[in-house]
């Protein structure tokens, strides 16, 4: 009788020199991931809820960007839920501290989170860009209007392509978590890095556009500085995009994916 591997009790990879596999009580990043998810979800839910309810209570017209922001928030909640659930299974542990079966489960949830990422990001960016359009282009369709339209369509096409790439990463899909199955898979490393690069470009474009427009507005210096400071908060998103790119490159170069993916998804 041929020997079979017990995938539930066999480490996914051999521990590197100086380390020992621990499938019982290994080191994990799950507490930090849960804390980050709770904080981010709480803040965004409160802010999106206040904005949406304010429009209803003030009898202001609820526009398409308000609905897409709510959809983006629901997508983010689903994304965080998938990551936290994956963490309870084994994501956030070193690859040599999880079994082959756990590594297969983590691969499934990791792919689901990647599929959710594109539509969620598009809804969020669409909402922001449509709000900018209403603020700066309410009276005419000038070059600012067409710049915004180009950004919306560019983000739509890119996020759709990323969605399809992760959805069809393997044919059949079961090969994602079982590489022994016959079939074909594409490397998602390029998609991960491309996503980070495009996010940097779109975030900086969305930040620079209102700053240029505000700079030309006829208002006193103090008011202009105050308005520009509000949009300058967008620098935080731009900085985050750069950090994500650096980490994405690092992610494609490591074999300890169950540990690295968990850390990277906090950005």
From TrEMBL:
Region (Disordered): 1-22
Membrane topology: Multi-pass membrane protein
Keyword Transmembrane helix appears in the UniProt entry: yes
Domain Rhodopsin residues, every copy: 53-260
Cross-referenced InterPro entries: Rhodopsin_dom_fungi (IPR049326), SAT4-like (IPR052337)
Subcellular locations according to the entry: Membrane
GO cellular component: membrane
Residue spans crossing the bilayer: 33-54, 66-86, 98-123, 144-172, 192-213, 225-247
Swiss-Prot/TrEMBL keywords: Membrane, Transmembrane, Transmembrane helix
Family membership noted in the UniProt record: Belongs to the SAT4 family.
Designated name of the protein: Rhodopsin domain-containing protein
């Amino acid at each position: 009788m041929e020997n079979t591997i017990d995938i539930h009790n066999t480490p996914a990879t051999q521990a590197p020199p100086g380390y020992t596999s621990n499938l019982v009580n290994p080191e994990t990043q799950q507490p930090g991931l849960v804390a980050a998810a709770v904080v981010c979800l709480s803040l965004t839910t409160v802010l999106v809820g206040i904005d949406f309810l304010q429009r209803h209570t003030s009898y202001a017209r609820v526009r398409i960007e308000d609905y897409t922001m709510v959809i983006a928030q629901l997508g983010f909640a689903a994304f965080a839920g998938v990551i936290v659930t994956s963490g309870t299974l084994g994501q956030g542990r070193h690859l040599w501290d999880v079994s082959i079966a756990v590594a297969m489960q983590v691969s499934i949830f990791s792919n689901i989170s990647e599929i959710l990422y594109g539509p969620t990001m598009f809804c969020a960016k669409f909402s922001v860009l449509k709000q900018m359009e209403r603020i700066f282009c309410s009276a005419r369709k000038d070059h600012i209007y067409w710049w915004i339209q180009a950004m919306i369509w560019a983000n739509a096409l890119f996020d759709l392509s990323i969605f399809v790439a992760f959805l069809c990463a393997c044919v059949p899909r079961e090969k994602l978590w079982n590489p022994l199955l016959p079939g074909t898979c594409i490397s998602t490393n390029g998609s991960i890095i491309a996503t980070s690069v495009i996010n940097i470009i779109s975030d900086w474009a969305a930040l620079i556009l209102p700053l240029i427009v505000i700079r030309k507005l006829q208002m006193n210096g103090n008011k202009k500085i105050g308005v520009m400071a509000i949009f300058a908060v967008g620098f935080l998103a731009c900085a985050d995009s750069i950090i994500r790119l650096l980490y994405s490159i690092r992610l494609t170069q490591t074999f300890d994916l169950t540990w690295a993916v968990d850390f990277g998804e906090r950005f």
